[in-house]
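During the second year of the project, the team shifted from modelling isolated chains to modelling whole assemblies. The rationale, set out in the original proposal, was that interfaces cannot be judged from single-chain predictions alone. As a representative example for this report, we include one of the complexes processed in the last quarter. Its constituent sequences, exactly as entered into the pipeline, are reproduced here:
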Amino acid sequence: MPVYAPADTTGMSVNPSQFDVLQHAVAASALRHKVIAQNIANVNTPGYQAREVRFEEALQRAVDSGGSEGLRGTEVDEFVDVREAAYSAVRQDGNTVDMDREIGNLNENVMKHQVYFQILATKFAQMRSAITGR
Amino acid sequence: MGRYFSATDISASGLAAERLRMEIVASNLANAQTTRTPEGGPYRRREVVFSSIYDDVARAPGDVPLGGVRVLGMQGDPSDFPRVYRPGHPDADTDGFVLMPNVNTATEMVDMMTASRAYEANLRALRSFRDMTESVLSLLRQS
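Output from the structure prediction step:
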């Protein structure tokens, strides 16, 4: 019977697999919601520049190079990039918020957040049933 | 946990600001024909001034200093009052012209629609955040 032996057991965590990347993904999508909410609240503020949040590529690169365990001890700040989106101002007051785009981002982000958290919660539930046998 | 809930503050500020804008529009529309005010002269159109908020409080990791939107104040529209020829009007001058409020009904209706749509969008952002938090809480409740 093959036995799974992880290559490096030093610093083994009681957390499930992929915990670190999922934890960062949950936090980053919660932060993205704040930024989208800020854009929506300022849709009528003259001169306001819409902001966007990017983190998926940075997280993916980190996982590709070091695995999820390589993220342990890092802060989500290192992967989150909040910047003014490169949208052109089509409105006279210089505001770059596109309501329909923000609503679309809002819905997409809510789904992503729920997916990340659901996966995390499922992993913990599996661990619990493995530990308790129920 | 405190910072996780401040997305509510951002959306709530948007709701308050757009609601105030709608109230100003309603006031402008109601006074579109008001030629006599306590200060003298016709009603002067009012508009709200919005500004985005960044809070300067020290941030936790993974947070952004966003506070939503604030109404800086209300100001009078400085554009001229239109002179309209209405010889029978009680406030007409000797030539029969009346100074009317600088309120354009069509403009006010468009402002009302944009404020209303923005209000709905802020409400949706608030509800989405509640859905996100509720699904998190319900999953935590199962453990």
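Chain B has two helices and four strands. The beta strands of chain B are 46-53, 68-76, 83-85, 97-99.
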